[in-house]
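Translate sequence into structure tokens.
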Amino acid sequence: MYKTAMLGCGGRARGHADAYRFVKRGKLAAICDMDAERLNNFGDEFGISSRYTDLDEMLEKEKPDVLHIVTSPVVPNGSKRIRYPLMKQVSDHDVPAAIVEKPIAVEGEDWKQIAGLAEETKTKFVVNTQLDFHPKNLELKRDVTEGRIGEIKFIDASARSRTAEQGGHVLQLVSSYIDNSRPVRVLGQIAGSEDLDSAAGHPSPTHAVGHALYENGVHVSLAFGTEMAEKVSDDSGIYRHKRVFVAGTKGFVHWRFSSWERSTLAGGYEGGRLNYGEQDVLAQGNFTEAIFDWLEDENNVHPTHLKQSLAEFNLILGMYYSGITNEIIELPFEPPDGLMNMLREKL
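Result follows.
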């Protein structure tokens, strides 16, 4: 039984904690939050008695096998990036594994810091982009892997929310259907400056589109924002509109927030509704179990491991920079410092 702990006891942390109903090899044993009221409310709700307001103290006393880092990448006023300092702190404590909430970074400076950490840390960091662990997504991926739609020719993926908010989810979904092939080139366009100073911790252009080429030869179309991305749910919440469509020589699969489609030569056209909440709590449990698989076997690498997630976010930064420079960006690329200021000036 693995011992786990959680940093951050806000709303998103409840999804992580609730999933332990489906986690067989781990127990959430300790929690940490600087807000004592939030900490105690969370502890009472989930029956966790070991509570801390200091991360160093929790890590020293509890020595968890896995830490959930469920915090914003920036401080509330958006003036300071805090993802890297927390990850470095965890790495310095030699925590065996850590789950980091998305986005892994928001601009060039913190991306470069975390990329540097990825080269030296012993901690197995993974980014919490759990959508490919949804049961229906796993089923559709099996269709692709087993050749039921033939050779993949094109992927179309989108979300109606901002790239910093849901881009990690969308790009990890794309990666999951092509065996984590890496992007090698992107042409992007951007619009809208109103979210560059997002108080929610997801600063990015309001709208972004791009066309990416991956190393396996697959072309991928990407769209983010309410004006360009497809509406795929009856719900008005923008985060509920994310999707991935994989077209092959013999059919297609299409996963959406609350529905799915599939067309194969053998089965014809099929489709149906999905209950996202029911699928997501199972996915979060499966995601967490996959961490334990990696801890037990070095060759069983988690699909959202840090270097893979950094490559996906590098594509997002490439989209931004392409929109600024009007050039095709070869990936991976070294993002310039001050990218957010460049976006403000451009937009």
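Note: The mean pLDDT is 95.
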